């Protein structure tokens, strides 16, 4: 496997711990990669496919990717204007991104993401980002060289904002589709929501309808989802494996725990 490019965003529910496991399903560079629930896109940055479609329902996230792709040096220049302290964090959080330039809004998004609680993206009913400041262990803001490497890779991808069904409608024979939707589990609350429009239990029905189409046209898919009754029932027609991962959404390491997820695929033989 090539040396992965580290994503420049943190994201609750990121699959960084499972990258090597997930990468064993990747069929190779000649395949178009499609990801409708991008988040930090850590799998995309690890694989570095030559052709991709990267999408998410989060418009601020997709705009940030587009701006980094096109103006990475200007984004870094804007980041340099922001002091690292609690006051700056809350001042930026109060600002409306639509009143800012594209590069300033992207820098704001990256700054808030870096220094918020565990990379969580959450909004209130008015659509305002409302995650508190929690800088411990978050590391530094991305450098120019880092963003330039990410920008180079993003230029290989078509970036889209919208519901996952719109992206999955683009899938053609031979494509490889990776799906990591927010977990909707009836017996527990997995704190990973974007907004009131986030992925819910009934969306598993929509998702499986598309998986059946993807399977029927000769495309390949890989899904990661919480190991729960709903998922086992929804994905029962395909191969799946149970894997252990560490949940990092708790605010303090002492409360973090291991959990189990399912890796689901329509590929014969599963992992190589």
Walk me through this protein's architecture.
The model is unreliable at 189-193 and 250-255 (pLDDT under 50). This protein starts with 18 loop residues before the first helix and ends in a 7-residue tail after the last strand. The protein has helices at 19-23, 42-47, 59-79, 86-94, 102-115, 144-154, 164-168, 203-216, 229-234; strands at residues 33-35, 52-56, 157-161, 176-179, 220-226, 239-247, 257-265. With 272 residues, the protein is α/β, with parallel strands linked by helices. The chain has a 7-stranded mixed sheet with strand order 3-2-1-4-5-7-6, sandwiched between helices. The protein has 2 domains: 16-58 and 156-265, Vaccinia Virus protein VP39 (Rossmann fold), CATH 3.40.50.150; 64-149, Orthogonal Bundle (Adenine-specific Methyltransferase, domain 2). Helix 3 packs across helix 5 and helix 3 runs antiparallel to helix 6 (144-154). Helix content is 33%, strand content 15%.
Features:
single chain; 272 residues; Rossmann fold; Adenine-specific Methyltransferase, domain 2; 33% helix
- The structure class reads alpha/beta
CATH level 3 topology of the largest domain: Rossmann fold
**Biggest pleated sheet:** 7 strands, mixed
Helix and strand pattern: HEHEHHHHEHEHEHEE
Oligomer kind: single chain
What would the principal axes of the Cα set say about the shape? globular
Structural domain count: 2
Corresponding CATH architecture of the largest domain:
3-Layer(aba) Sandwich
Indicate the proportion of strand residues.
Answer: 15-25%
Q: Order of strands across the widest beta sheet?
A: 3-2-1-4-5-7-6
Counting DSSP E segments of at least 2 residues, the number of strands comes to 7
CA radius of gyration is 18 Å
């Amino acid at each position: 496997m090539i040396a992965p490019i580290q994503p420049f965003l943190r994201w609750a529910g990121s699959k960084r711990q499972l990258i090597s496991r997930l990468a064993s399903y990747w069929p190779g560079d000649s395949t178009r990669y499609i990801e409708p629930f991008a988040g930090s896109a850590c799998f995309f940055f690890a694989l570095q496919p030559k052709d991709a479609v990267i999408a998410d329902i989060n418009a601020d996230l997709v705009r940030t990717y587009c701006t980094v792709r096109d103006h990475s040096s200007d984004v870094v220049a804007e980041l340099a204007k922001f002091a690292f302290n609690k006051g700056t964090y809350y001042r930026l959080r109060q600002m409306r991104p639509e009143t800012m330039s594209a590069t300033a809004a992207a820098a704001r998004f990256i700054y808030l993401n870096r220094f918020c609680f565990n990379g969580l993206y959450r909004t209130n009913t008015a659509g305002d980002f409302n995650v508190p400041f929690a800088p411990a262990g978050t590391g530094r803001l991305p450098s120019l060289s880092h963003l330039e490497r990410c920008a180079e890779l993003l230029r290989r991808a078509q970036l889209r904002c919208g519901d996952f069904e719109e992206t999955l409608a683009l899938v053609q024979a031979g494509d490889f589709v990776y799906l990591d939707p927010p977990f909707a589990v009836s017996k527990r609350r997995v704190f990973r929501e974007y907004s009131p429009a986030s992925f819910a239990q009934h969306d598993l029905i929509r998702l499986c309808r598309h998986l059946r189409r993807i399977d029927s046209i000769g495309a390949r898919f890989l899904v990661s989802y919480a190991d729960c009754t709903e998922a086992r029932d929804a994905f029962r027609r395909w191969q799946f494996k149970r894997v252990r991962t560490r949940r990092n959404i708790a605010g303090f390491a002492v409360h973090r725990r291991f959990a189990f997820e399912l890796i689901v695929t329509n590929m014969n033989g599963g992992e190589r």
